[in-house]
Specification:
Elements (H helix, E strand, L loop, with lengths): L1 E5 L4 H12 L3 E6 L9 E4 L5 H8 L4 E4 L11 H22 L3 E5 L14 E2 L12 H20 L2 E7 L2 E2 L1 H13 L10 E4 H13 L6 E5 L2 E2 L5 H9 L4 E2 L13 H7 L18
Parallel strand pairs: 1-2, 1-4, 2-3, 4-5, 5-7, 6-12, 7-10, 8-9
Antiparallel strand pairs: 9-11
Helix pairs in contact: 1-6, 2-3, 3-4
Length: 281
């Protein structure tokens, strides 16, 4: 399959491109920054320029959209919001016009606003209210609304990934050590980290699936502490979060049940204080 991956100069996009190449797909990566090594054919494309987007998409059958400013504070807030929303809309519009139906598009678990308030209930499914706290999260909620529009009006199959705590394998040890030393300081990410290789696998599975359900999907790894999800939620959130029966069996308070049901995603790289999954050379 001919697949375009946006954001191959960044963390997740580079892993996605490599995963798709290993699976035998014909991959083109685009970014305003230079592509990471071993990500295949690449073009320097500014997603906020619709003409460049149309040209890059012309020979493509599916898209994985990971290109964006990856958080607030990298550039001024106005540019974060403008570039992320404009780039996403340009991409969706071009796909609609060119007949490209299947798109995986990156959102973020930041849309849930756990940095300011605990979840209303756990496990947290995709129906949980959205509470964006900064320009980045707000741009992601706008991107999700744009996806809904193109799904309903243009018939696109857009799967929006609400990604939690994605990290390169090389960064996991330091993250785990910090969480273990101060679990109360990691409540906004629910003590959970997602290996970038799992993000890449999730993207490939969603692109390759014969039938999908458009809409939002939580994509996450597992809690990295020895305590269970239920124990952590109860200890740190107490009666502010409703604990539902099936939380005890969840790898993370953020549920990936929908992704597992629809396209078979379940994290493979389950990092913890007692488990490591270093990247092979």
């Amino acid at each position: 399959m001919r697949i375009l991956v946006t954001g191959t100069g960044g963390l997740i996009g580079s892993y996605v491109a490599r995963e798709l190449l290993r699976a035998g797909h014909d991959v083109t990566g685009i970014d305003i920054a230079p592509a990471k090594p071993s990500t295949g054919r690449s073009l320097r494309v500014d997603l906020t320029d619709s003409g460049q987007v149309y040209q890059a998409l012309a020979p493509v059958e599916a898209v994985v959209h990971m290109g964006a400013w990856a958080n607030a504070g990298i550039v001024p807030d106005t540019r974060t919001y403008h570039d992320n929303t404009t780039g996403t809309f340009n991409l969706f519009q071009a796909c609609a016009d060119l007949g490209i139906r299947r798109i995986v598009s990156a959102s973020s678990a930041q849309v849930y606003g756990f940095a300011a308030a605990p979840p209303l209930y756990a496990p947290i499914d995709e129906a949980h209210p959205l509470r964006p706290l900064n320009c980045y999260a707000l741009s992601k909620t706008a991107g999700e609304q744009a996806a809904d529009y193109f799904i309903e009006r243009k018939g696109l199959e857009i799967l929006t990934f609400r990604i939690m705590g994605a990290r390169a394998p090389s960064a996991m040890d330091a993250n785990i050590e910090r969480i273990a030393q101060n679990p109360g300081g990691d409540t906004s990410l629910l003590w959970t980290r997602t290996d970038a290789r799992d993000m890449a696998i999730a993207s490939r599975l969603a692109i390759e699936a014969e039938k999908v359900e458009p809409g939002p999907y939580n994509i996450t790894g597992a809690v990295v502490l020895e305590e269970s999800s239920a124990e952590l939620v109860e200890r740190h959130f107490a009666d502010r979060t409703e604990i539902r029966d099936h939380l005890a069996n969840s790898l993370s308070p953020l549920s990936c049940a929908r992704a597992e049901r629809v396209f078979g995603y379940r994290p493979r790289y389950l990092w913890s204080v007692s488990q490591r999954h270093p990247e092979e050379d």
